[in-house]
Write a structure and sequence with these properties.
Among the domains are: about 45 residues, no CATH class; about 90 residues, no CATH class; about 100 residues, no CATH class. Helix content is about 45%, strand content about 20%. It has 10 helices and 12 strands. The strands form 4 sheets. It has a 4-stranded antiparallel β-sheet. The chain has a 3-stranded antiparallel β-sheet with strand order 3-2-4, with no helix packed on it. It has a 3-stranded antiparallel β-sheet with strand order 6-7-10, with no helix packed on it.
């Protein structure tokens, strides 16, 4: 560093320094001849005290110490980094798994699953070469990867449609048409429908003290296929009172089909009976004019898969028809997709795939 000092002169009477441009000393207030100039804008430089040189031995020891520390840190980092490359047979600490999960999400779940199942696969030495990293990458990139799965699925659906479903389409439609016709012609309600009208028959008792209310009912008949389509029927009349049932034929139904021709319960006197009870008619069978009998149970002859499809026209129900009624060797679309996916996963890494299927899930 340096310091700039302005030119000065010294008073020959009091000895103080005075700027060279002053003719009178400001200290003694007298004229002075002044003596020699002290400075004329000289630069005064201060030099730092020289330090003692460091010995070569000291430098060497310091460098060695720094190298040892760096080696220890590097070795630690390498060991930590290589834990993910350890075999799944070798446990790793949970703290490492937690920290690694921050770097690669999902690692903790895989670590936990492997750790909890290790006693099951520890004797299966064929899986020893699988590392945590290899297993993680297989699961993330393929096994649990929705993009990978959807790509395989769409390809499989197109292949299945051409190879299996389309060739059966015409057979399915013919079969459905046949059973639709069967269901129509074997539905008893398409020939006869019976509704019940309830009322009361009012009678006087023997002594005319008061009236008796006998529950009565009659039938209203409808013939969807025409009144001449059937010549007889078998039906069950049920009253939800003391398990009252009675079998009737078409003649009985016709004879009691209006308010003047009816049936009644002569052992009951209750003006509110129909408020708490009801009467129903179940048609068990009808006899057509050609003598053919149609039973209510005929619907059970329709294959289960066809009935399901009539109720819900889904792909799965359609394929069940093929499997049950047309081609028992037909491969379902879902099975084809599953097999296609398994094949692709095996090609990606058969060892990891087998390990996951056998031990993890």
């Amino acid at each position: 560093m340096h310091i700039i000092i302005k030119p000065q002169k010294r008073c020959n009477k009091c000895g103080h320094l005075v700027p060279t441009d002053r003719n009178q000393c400001p200290y003694c207030k007298e004229e002075s001849d002044f003596i020699s100039q002290v400075s004329s804008n000289k630069k005064i430089t201060t030099n730092p005290q020289p330090t003692k040189p460091i010995s070569k031995k000291t430098i060497k020891i310091g460098l060695i110490a720094i190298g040892v520390v760096a080696l220890i840190v590097t070795t630690f980092l390498i060991i930590e980094a290589n834990k993910i490359n350890k075999s799944i047979f070798d446990p790793i600490d949970s703290e490492y798994a937690v920290n690694k999960n921050k770097e690669i999400p999902g690692f903790w779940q895989i670590y936990s699953s492997v750790n909890s199942k290790r006693n099951r696969f520890v004797d299966s030495t064929q899986y020893k070469e699988i590392t945590y990293k290899r297993l993680y990458e297989f699961i993330q990139n393929f096994y649990n990867n929705s993009d990978f799965y959807n790509e395989i699925k769409q390809t499989a659906i197109i292949e299945h449609e051409e190879k299996y479903r389309k060739p059966e389409a015409i057979h399915i439609q013919n079969l459905l048409d046949e059973w639709d016709e069967y269901a129509r012609t074997h539905n008893v309600n398409n020939y006869l429908q019976v509704s019940v009208i309830t009322d009361y028959l009012i009678q006087n008792d023997y002594y005319d003290y008061e009236s008796c209310y006998r529950p009565k009912f009659y039938f209203r008949l409808t013939y969807p296929a025409g009144s001449n389509a059937i010549i007889d029927c078998n039906a069950t009349v049920t009253i939800d009172y003391e398990n009252t049932t009675n079998r009737v034929d078409l003649k009985t139904l016709k004879e009691n089909d209006n308010s003047k021709n009816y049936l009644y319960l002569n052992w009951i006197d209750d003006s509110s009976f129909w408020d708490y009870h009801s009467v129903t008619v179940t048609i068990n069978s009808v006899t057509l004019k050609d003598g053919t009998k149609i039973y209510a149970t005929d619907a059970s002859n329709i294959p289960y898969s066809v009935r399901n499809y009539q109720y819900d026209k889904s792909l799965e129900n359609e394929e069940q028809i093929i499997k049950e009624c047309i081609n028992k060797d037909y491969i379902m679309q879902s099975d084809y997709i599953h097999d296609k996916l398994n094949k692709e996963l095996m090609e990606k890494d058969s060892l990891c795939y087998k390990f996951i299927r056998n031990f993890m899930y």
